[in-house]
Amino acid sequence: MLNRRTFLMSTGAAGGSFLALNSLAAQSSMEAPPKEMLNVAFVGVGNQGISLLTRLLTWNLARVVAVCDTNQGSFGYREPNHFYGREPAADLVNEHYKKLGIASDCKAYADFRDVLADASIDAVFLVVPDHWHATMSVLAAAAGKHVYCEKPLTLTIAEGQQMIDAVNKYGITLQTGSQERSNPISKFVCELVKAGGIGKVHRVLTTIGFNNKDSPPPGWQPDPVPQTFNYNMWLGPAPEAPYHHDRCLYRFRFNYDYSGGQITNFGAHCNDMAHWGLGMDRSGPHKIECLEAEFPVAGSLFNTALKSTFRCEYENGVELICASGSPSVQTRFEGDDGWILTGYGETTASRPELLKGLPNYDKRKQIDPHSLHMKDFLEAIIEKRSPVAPVEVGHASATLCHLANIAIRCFPTHGRELLTWDPVNQTFPNHPDCNAEMSRPQRENWG
User: Would you state the torsion angle of the CA atoms of residues 353, 359, 364, 366, taken in this order, to the nearest 10 degrees?
Assistant: First the structure.
């Protein structure tokens, strides 16, 4: 049963946040924030986890009662001077509530299973490396916890199917951390395209960013495992591998054992918007091919693509081409009656009238899409409705990115052959070697 608690906010900083949130809700035609606050925990409080945690506290979206991380606390996340981990996160929470005059004893767990065993917790924010998403989400669902799981939703296509089954079986709410779904500008563009604003769409161009960190070169040597870091638990279901500081924390995304590189990192945003505008956000392409891929030198610690280009065909004749470039996330829809482009940059169009009504909030008064996205998740739980980025949508977006990586990994065999994909049955009907890439063996002795 959902454990709801009324969280009485004090005046001052809390009151200011509450008023600003109400102001934004009115501007965006959203309902006022719920009076009942849920108890939540953050599992993974590194770079993205601390960022989301800080936003949630700032806007008083829920009561944070626990944090969890395999790292007690250290420097060396996205930037060398970033000091994150479970103890800094717990201190952040307790200090925040102390300033508001609210008693707080935020628990700092080293094992996520202790979070799931805590009956006081209603929902968990899973902000962990991709290789942990499915395992944690399924176990959280079985424990009756609602789940906010960062994008990309999965490490493999098969994991997405498992997560959908778990959400349906246990009846929990799952929000994929694709915050562009809560961005008023992205919504305006995608809904305009879906409604026929640029006529029949024939092509979508998406952009993903280049790698933003350099790999340790061939000949790299293992590092001693820090005493404050449970490396075996961090690896979890991933294969055993010698510890190196550039394997973990922020840089996990550049190794296939834990992520899919920038194709899944940024691609989970731009290609999600492509599917949204096409009205195909629970489906996918029926053909895909790798056009280009460049990798680090053999023997480097990083092994995901440095840059890539892939092309998809959909049954309705639409072509999607995704390529590395700048800005990091960009989606351009091209139709019979013009084009429109949006992403991590200016939103532009072939005709000024296409942008009429485009949201343009005063940045000093709005909260960003990340905060809106968490707010939608928490309201969806209380209102017992679907969130804006449910598990099926997250699975479809992640699957498109996984298909790209499969095409790249199968390139030595198939070259630029158009691989046939069945989005309904989730299989490569003519390519058994590609089907083998849809799942990974999982290590079992991480606990």
Answer: 180
DSSP 294: E
CA dihedral (301, 404, 396, 354) positive or negative: positive
Q: Which residues lie closer than 8 Å to 356 by C-beta, 6 or more apart?
A: none
Q: Cβ distance 311 to 291 under 8 Å?
A: yes
CA 184/CA 3 separation, integer angstroms: 31
Residue 342's beta-bridge partner residues? 331
Whether the model pTM is above 0.85: yes
Spatial neighbors of 233 by CB under 8 A, at least 6 apart, are: 70, 110, 111, 446, 447
On the 0-12 / 13-18 / 19+ scale of CB atoms within 10 A, 93 is buried
Question: pLDDT tens for residues 24-72?
Answer: 333 333 333 345 799 999 999 999 999 999 999 999 999 999 999 999 9
Consecutive H or E run containing 36: strand 36-43
